[in-house]
Specification:
heterodimer, A: alpha/beta, Rossmann fold, Alpha-Beta Plaits, 2 domains, six-stranded mixed β-sheet, four-stranded antiparallel β-sheet, 11 helices, 12 strands, about 40% helix, B: alpha/beta, 9 helices, 10 strands, globular
Amino acid sequence: MALNDVSLDVKAGELFGLIGPDGAGKSTLMRILMSLILPDSGEVWLDGLDVKSEYKKVRHITGYMPGRFSLYPDLTIEENMQFFATVFGTTVEANYDLVKDIYAQIEPFKKRRAGKLSGGMKQKLALSCAMIHKPKVLILDEPTTGVDAVSRKEFWEMLKRLRNQGITILVSTPYMDEASLCDRIALIQQGEVFSVDTPAQMAAGFPEDLWEITSPVIYKTTPLLEKMPLQMSVNSFGQSLHLVTPKGRVKPEEIRAFLQQNGETDFDVKRIQATIEDVFMHFMLNAKKESV
Amino acid sequence: MNREKVISVKNMVKKFGDFVANNDLTFDVYKGEIFGFLGANGAGKTTAIRILCGLSTPTSGEMKVAGFDIYRETEKIKKNIGYMSQKFSLYEDLTVNENIRFYGGIYGIPVAERKKRAAGMLENLGLTPYANSKIGSLPLGWKQKLAFSIAILHNPDIVFLDEPTGGVDPVTRRQFWNLIYKAVEKGITVFVTTHYMDEAEYCDRISIMNEGKIAVLDTPANLKKQFNAANMDEVFLRIAR
């Protein structure tokens, strides 16, 4: 079952994120919204249009960027843009203002074939092509996967600008730091939406205690903490570790004492607020435990 | 310290027409280290990796991989390295076992030995029940873990990983890095590219490429100190922007 009884509302003008692991059903949901596949049951509306019976209208008001690069590799940047504009009965010039911010960055290479572009440039071109008919709604399936940290930042700045112009954006991502840039997000796992909220609310709702632990010997500290009584999970976060313990059950002195007793020195234990990545991992690990 | 070099690169240049993809790269990678090869899209990372794997010939420069010359001994290089490409490299229409048989055959692993290694590998990954499932039916995270395990099935000196965790969920990403650490314990040198800056912290040393050149090369700790940055994300943004 790819999607199981999903109910979800996205408000006009919202930047809404679908967050979930590979295979959770994010792409399927987007393909249904785009009327590319039909749901077995349920109703789906997009800007007041029934995606089943009014799919032709739906396609005119939406811009879609599929997960896989789907432009014409043998056409140049310029030719791809012209193609998509023509299909929608408009011209690149007519809507140039809308795509200018993004398109200007790749325009110097407009004679280059799309297949020869780097990952970040391909994504910029795909977004430009999805925007060229001035859609009301943008549906972007993992637009930044494989894109470098600098280009990702630029890409999200562009999304925010588009949102500020009144365009509704539904975007999926595996990058947790991007989840926190959305107005609201939905966490999806195994075809079910399990939580919808603002990123701040979702992070604040982390149900357990969370600790950041730094140590000069993190590779030793990890297996050690995994043996600590009451620990729920230990995960590396760059240069530090995040330890989860049941709410109100473990005091920082107890963690320090445990590390000291096991020969650790020069470590630091600090209570921290959860990030979306903590929330997501907690939810995934617990979902796994329940399904076993 | 006199450490054994498994990759040595001197003045590597690769041109495509007028375009210089790799502009005079010089660096060494030591045995048993995790070497992070970072850079913006289009900086020339994949081009350099393809050269080091013997898949593409450089325009000029001197390079040795696993002790073999990059111009004259590419076939020997290929036998002594593992490569997991950016684009998924297993056969979607073959089962897990068929893929293992295929790669085992290519690398000339004796049948009995291959069966033993494959059984151990699937056991470790928890994928024994899926041995006869088609690769195409498995989640991306599982595929990536399998692709990595198959890339080191022949116990290579070095494994090249080109964005192995792109698009993978945060739990699976961490499991993937545990596999990398296990490979290092076995003595395999890991050469990895990633766009996740928390993963850059897990490398012993990293280089950051910009417009075909290596802008910096050091340990994550030294780079953060040098750029007075709190994390690798900041370091990267300063260099690549």
